[in-house]
Amino acid sequence: MSPTASARAWPRALAVALLVTVFTLAAFAAAPPATSAAPAGLSGEAFGIELCPQAVCGAATFIGYFRGDVDGRAAAGWWTIATRHDALPDAGASAGVTGGRWSLSMGGDRSAGAVTGGSISNNGDDTFAVTVALGPSVGRTDGGLSLTFTGTLDHRTFPFTARGTITGG
Over 7-25, what HEC string results? Predict the structure, then answer.
């Protein structure tokens, strides 16, 4: 790489590192208040990026933005997921989601739990249809949230993206 090309790559790498740091800090900043209640209904759009593939980090690690409704009121927040899965399938085939952890932070409330299952199906165009079961959040006296992410993992661009919906309650 020439010195000029290297010099041009630094601002982009620094911007990506700063963006990842800000997203990570925002997602993990708030712990749930002890008196907060899990919402009865949650539904909304989710968009995120893959920070680290399973082959490198032991779990496919994502962070993203949530926008939707919680108990009939507009809400927004940050989600993270570190999920383990069987080997990515060939075109037309599926693989299982085998475990991991998730969190969803909105305002001063944060819920987190275990990934309890799901599937990844190869669409044949470097995209994957994904369904992930997000088990009940832990450490809550109200039973917590049980959610589902349904969407598309896109490997056509870098960073890889995940887009879909999060629903449940």
Answer: HHHHHHHHHHHHHHHHHHH
- What per-residue string of b and e applies to 99-121 under the rule 16 or more CB within 10 Å gives b? bbbbbbbbeebbbbbebbebbbb
DSSP 140: -
Q: How far apart are CA 10 and CA 14, in angstroms?
A: 6
Q: pLDDT tens for residues 15-64?
A: 454 455 444 444 444 444 333 455 578 999 999 999 999 999 999 999 99
Report residue 99: phi and psi, to 5°.
160, -175
Q: Which domain holds residue 134?
A: 3-168
**Is 0.85 topped by the overall pTM?**
no
Nearest to 85 by CA among 118, 52, 125: 118
Cα separation values, 124 from 2, 155, 161, Å: 37, 11, 16
Structural domains of the chain, count: 1
- Asked if 82 contacts 59 with a C-beta cutoff of 8 angstroms, the reply is yes
Strands (E), the chain: 42-52, 60-70, 73-85, 94-106, 109-122, 127-137, 147-154, 161-168
